[in-house]
Design brief:
The chain is of the alpha/beta class. The protein is 57% helix and 10% strand. The chain contains 19 helices and 8 strands. It has an 8-stranded mixed beta sheet, with helices on both faces. Helix 4 links the parallel strand 1 and strand 2. Helix 1 crosses helix 12. It is globular and about 80 Å long.
Length: 517
């Protein structure tokens, strides 16, 4: 199947100007809002004060809404963890024999899992943990294929790690492939998607040799530090088998950054846990979901869209949009309410850990590069309903804008009219009551912070060793840092990414350092 999807570097002048115009849009909107707010604080302080009150009221309602969804998501995780998914898969085939349903269910014995693990310079202890989590899963290993995808540019160390891992795991699965992605291929950037796509093409050759149908293969792309719940693959198989539109769906587990959560610092724990909460909340309103980090999908669909992009950093999300365009808007993400555990940011020193956390947030924020690609794809595709185009385009753009400006609005903008409004404004009833009103609204919004504090404790893994009582207390009260880090490690990485794209200063893929203590 031929599939035409916009590339990040257009070849003709018309597409280039469209691309650059849309690339500049998020940065222009964000900076216009920030600068305009300071200007209006001088010229129209009453209008700014009213806007702040309305916005904080809106955010208070949204915090309540998010908190409720996170609780629902957490409850589903606990329910799904108790289900015998492999048993449900086996019973499903028996039910199908006597059923008159028109929905075709493939036999469990024909469903294969293909797991691609792109890696660059990660240590062997990281990769072994990931492979062991797959090996310890409850899905039959004679229907699992592992691809350890190494980079040629990683040097001799990669070859040594590849040899050790292959010797240890080659006989444990139906197939174990080691691939070495060549460096310097024309049209490729030094990004994970290029490596994963090379590995997927090698896996395709293996499947052809074994006579396995692409429609019966579920492909998962895992970050090198991903440790899946032991029921994940059986649950995924069941959802795949029972889905009448299984080719038109990606499957998203819930990421928790728990592998080394006890070793990293409080700032990182707050950021990483907040990210997990956001994914849990999104899973409940799954019509808004886009693939993130480790995810799964039909291998046939992956082949039809020509794999992941080979020149973009945000491969984990743009693959959803490629599939969305392939099926003209009839593609969605189905949440899997089981967790995969990844590494939180951790470096040799406290300061380096915080700096690396900023860089990781900025890399995630660089998902802003999706916006011009999505918009150009929507302009070309006449079959996607206009309502869907407008809704998705608006959500993708405004989600990035709000990421950058919301913490600044909440933390700083309420004071702008008081600082710059002048004596005339400061003598008004509105000015006298503005701090009180904002204080009441923010106090109510603390409800979400308290719930987050307790849920974070329930999601923690057991400590790897005996810890002090002081450490346990820190794990509770670390959430007082949340308002303090919201701007430097939340808003600023997004504004940084938007500003770089505004001026055409494109980022390169930054691999988060993996440190295990």
């Amino acid at each position: 199947m031929s599939f035409d999807f916009p590339i990040s570097k257009p070849k003709n002048r018309k597409d280039y100007y469209i691309q650059r115009s849309i690339e500049m849009l998020p940065g222009i909107l964000t900076w216009s809002f920030l600068i305009g707010s300071f200007y209006l604080a001088f010229k129209a302080p009453i209008a700014i004060a009213i806007f702040i009150i309305i916005f904080d009221l809106y955010w208070m309602v949204k915090v309540f809404y998010i908190t409720v969804f996170v609780i629902f998501g957490y409850r589903r995780i606990k329910i799904w963890e108790k289900i015998d998914w492999i048993g449900k898969c086996e019973r499903l085939e028996d039910k199908q024999r006597g059923s008159t349903s028109s929905v075709e269910v493939e036999p469990l014995k024909t469903i294969y899992h293909l797991v691609i693990i792109p890696t660059y310079q990660e240590g062997i202890e990281v990769l072994e943990t990931t492979l062991d989590s797959i090996l310890n899963s409850d899905y039959p290993k004679d229907r699992m294929i592992i691809v350890a995808a190494f980079e040629e540019r990683a040097g001799e160390g990669a070859l040594e790690r590849a040899k050790i891992l292959e010797e240890k795991y080659k006989d444990k699965f139906f197939g174990y492939l080691t691939t070495l992605h060549p460096d310097g291929i024309a049209g490729e950037a030094k990004v994970k998607g290029a490596n994963a796509s090379w590995a997927a093409e090698e896996a395709r050759i293996f499947l052809d040799e074994k006579g396995i149908k692409y429609e019966n293969v579920i492909v998962s792309t895992f970050d090198s530090d991903t440790c899946a719940h032991y029921k994940y693959f059986s649950c995924l198989a069941y959802q795949f088998m029972t889905n009448p539109k299984r080719l038109q769906c990606s499957y998203q587990p819930l990421p928790l950054y728990n592998n080394n959560i006890w070793q990293t610092n409080s700032i990182v724990r707050v950021i990483m846990t907040s990210s997990s909460f956001w994914q849990i909340m999104q899973s409940v309103r799954y019509n808004k979901m886009v693939t993130f980090s480790s995810h799964s999908m039909s291998f046939k669909t992956l082949v039809d869209v020509n794999y992941w992009p080979r020149d973009m950093i945000s491969d984990d999300s743009i693959i959803f949009w490629k599939c969305y365009v392939l099926y003209h808007g009839d593609y969605f993400v189905e949440p899997i309410f089981l967790t995969v555990s990844l590494d939180a940011v951790l470096a040799d020193t406290y300061l380096k850990t915080v700096i690396n956390q900023y860089k990781q947030q900025r890399r995630w924020a660089w998902g802003i590069e999706n916006v011009p690609i999505i918009y150009r794809a929507f302009l070309k595709d006449r079959k996607i309903p206009l309502r869907k185009k407008i809704s998705k385009a608006w959500e993708e753009l405004m989600g990035r804008i709000s990421w950058g400006v919301t913490p600044i609005i909440i933390a700083l903008f309420g004071w702008l009219p008081l600082w710059f409004g002048g004596d005339l404004f400061n003598q008004t009833v509105l000015a006298l009551n503005l701090p009180k009103v904002l204080g009441y609204l923010m106090t109510f919004a603390m409800f979400g912070l308290i719930v987050s504090m307790f849920l974070s404790l329930f999601l923690l893994p057991p400590p790897p060793h005996k810890i002090s009582s002081f450490k346990k207390v820190i794990m509770v009260f670390q959430w007082v840092l949340a308002p303090m880090v919201a701007i430097p490690l939340g808003a600023l990485p997004m504004i940084d990414a938007q500003t770089r794209m505004l001026f055409g200063k494109y980022m390169e893929f930054w691999v988060t350092e993996k440190v295990r203590k």
